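Structure ticket #2291
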Amino acid sequence: MIILFDLDGTLIDSTPAILESFQVAFETFNKKNPKDEEIKKLIGLPLDIMFEKLGVETSKKWDYVDAYKKHYRPISKQKTTLLPFAKETIIEASKIATLGIVTTKTAKYSEELMKHFNVMEYFKVLIGREDVQNPKPHPEPILKALKKLKYNNHKAYMIGDTCLDSISAKEAGIFSIGVLSGYGDETKLRECSDFIFQNSLKAIAFLKS
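Resolution: structure written out below.
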């Protein structure tokens, strides 16, 4: 069995670091900072798309992304936590499956975070934004992870907190599991996911049974 995890809202909570970094990016270019709720609704999308949806001109979006990343990296470990039950989830999942991470975050920073939390050793692959041309909800990130894990039609699941994860999983031909621990709208998540659970640990308990 293969189990792939999203990060933000699924295993980790980096909301304070994300919101602060957006604020700094907008202040860098003397632009009015969006409301926190506007930003939270977009978490899960790649940064460049988030900035565009928040009103940044396409020609300037990568400047905002750079400003965001310069601030985010030094504060990310301090202002990110594992979600409740996340470490237990990872350990229990590793007993029944080969694990991977598929995220729209930068892979380099994601790996640093997971090493900081002493859980990176449980994952055989990590696919981030810079590893693909087409991020979730496109199937490319999941297909790339499956290829690296030598997937051969055995059971595979993607666990995530938004429909970006579930749609990507379905397009890649694997099962989708939605969790209510993050940023996704529950009604939409129930519509787009094969299964839905309160958190990732409950999802793993289901897969173990």
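Closing remark: The first helix runs from residue 15 to 28.
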